[in-house]
Amino acid sequence: MIMAPQLRQSLEMLQVPILELRAMIQKEIEQNPTLEELAPEGPTLEIEADPGDTPDDKSEMDFDKEFEVMAKLDDEWRDYFFQDLDNRPYSPDDDKKHQFLMDSLPQHESLQEHLMTQLHMTALGEQDQQIAEMIIGSINDDGYLTSSMTELADSLPFTEEHLQDILLVIQDFNPIGIGATDLQDCLLLQLERIGKADTVAGDIVRDYLTSLGSHKLQAIAKALKVSVEEIKEAENLIHSLDPKPGRAFSEEVASYVLPEVVVRKVNGEYVIILNDSQLPHLRISRHYRRLMENRETTAEVKSYIRDRLRASTFLIKSIDQRQKTIYKIADEIVRIQYDFLEHGVSHLKPLTMSTVADAVGVHETTVSRAVNQKYMRTPIGTYELKYFFTPGITTQDGTSISNKSVKDMIAQLVAEEDLDKPLSDQAIMEKLKQTGVDVARRTVAKYRIVLKIPPSHLRKYH
Question: For the segment 61-118, what is each residue's pLDDT rounded down to a tens digit?
Fold first, then answer.
C-alpha cells in the first residue's frame, strides 16, 4: 500500500516528541502562507460571509461549506491555547522570561580548551608549548593519551625523553589523572596527586587491579600480607577515583526531556493535563481569508489558496487528533496504574499496548507511536510512557505483578543480604517464592544481570 503524504504527516506528528513537533509546525508555517502563528492575547477573528459573493460553480460551493468548517475549527483551536497548565492567561512577559532563561545557559568548555588554558599559564617556552599542544591534541574525551611517545617523537624532531618531560607537565594539570596511557596509569596519577601512591591502594593498582575487579579481596590480602579490612579500605579509596577524568568536559550535552503529560492529584483524584506550552498558537491567515471572499480574486489564485487552506486545516486537525490520542492513552494508563501512583514501583501492574488500544479504540501501532519518546510527570517522578507497559508474572494467589516489580524485589533482597553470606540466584528464587512470586532461577539470573548485580561469589567480602 502507498501511504498518502497527509497520512504520513499525521502519523509522524503522533510519533515525535513535542519539541520536534514544534519544529515541524514552524517549518510548515514557513512553507504555507495561509498558516500563521497567533499571539494568544490577540482578538478573536470572526468571519462574516459576503452576501454578494456568489460561488461560480459547484466545486466552489462545496468549498464554501468546507471553508466555514475551517473558520470554525480555526477559532476553536485558537481558544484551546488561551490557557496554560495552571489556567493562567498568557502574558508577553512569558516569552521574555523564556528567552532570558535560554540566554543564561552557560557555554560549554571542551577538555582541550581547558587544558590549553592551563598550558598558557605555564613557564614553558614557545617551542615546548607547541609540543604540548600536539600532546594535548592526542588526548581523547576520556582524558587518555591515544598516541605513544614513540609515535609522537617520530613526527617531531625531539627525543622521547624530551616529550616525556612535557607530558609530565600536562599530567599535573586538572582534572587529576589527565594524560594517562591506560586505566592503571590514570589511577596511579590520581593516587600520587593525593599522596596515596605508596599505600596499599597503590600496591593494588600496580599489581592486583584485575583481581580487584573480580573482587578477590582475600587473595589480595594474602599476597600483600595485610588484613581484609585494609583491602576493603583501599578498595573504597580506588572506587572514589575517576577512571575517565576527561568526561567532565565531554561535548555530549545532557539530555533533557519535556513531559507532555502532567498528572496532578486534586481532591483525591488524579487529573491529567496536556502540556501544550511549546506548541505554536495557529490560525488561518486573515489576508488569505479575505482573498477567498473577494469576488475579484482570480480563479487561479483561489485554487492555490484553496489547496493551502486545506493543508492548513489538515495540520490543525492532525495536531488536535494527536493531543486527544495522547490524552486518552494517558488517561487509561493512570486509571490502570493508580496503585503505582499511590505506592510506587512495587505496585506497578502488568500492561500491554493492545490492552490500552482496545480501551481507547485505536490500533496497537497507534499506541506504540503515541507513547514513543513521550514523558509523564507524576507526583512521584517523571516517567517515559513506555515505562508503564510491562509484561506480568502471575503470583500464587492468581494476581499479576509486573516484571519491574519483581526486579525491584530482587534489588531489595540483595541490598538487605548478609555480606558474609550473599544470596545465590537459587536463594533469591526461594525467597521470592515465599512471598508468592514463583519465577525460575534463570529468570532471577536474567533480572540480576539487567540490574547489574554481580553473582553471589563476587559480592562476598570474605
Answer: 455 555 555 555 555 544 444 444 444 444 555 555 545 544 544 556 788 888 998 9
Contact 278, 22 (CB under 8 A): yes
For residue 37, give the C-alpha cell: 502563528
How far, in Å, are 210, 225, 335, 402 from residue 349 at the CA level?
A: 42, 53, 11, 5
Tell me the per-residue pLDDT of 126-143, one tens digit each, with 9 for 90 and over: 888 888 888 998 899 889
Q: Which residues contact 443 (CB under 8 A, 6 or more apart)?
A: none
Q: What is the Cα Rg of the chain in Å?
A: 32
d(CA 10, CA 276): 18
**pLDDT of res. 46:** 33
Angle, to 10 degrees, between the axis of helix 126-137 and the axis of helix 111-119? 160
pTM over 0.70: no
Q: What is the mean pLDDT of the chain?
A: 79
**CATH no. for 392-459:** 1.10.10.60
Q: Please report, for the chain, the start and end positions of each structural domain, with discontinuous segments joined by +.
A: 20-48+55-100+272-319, 111-247, 338-388, 392-459
3 state SS of 282: strand
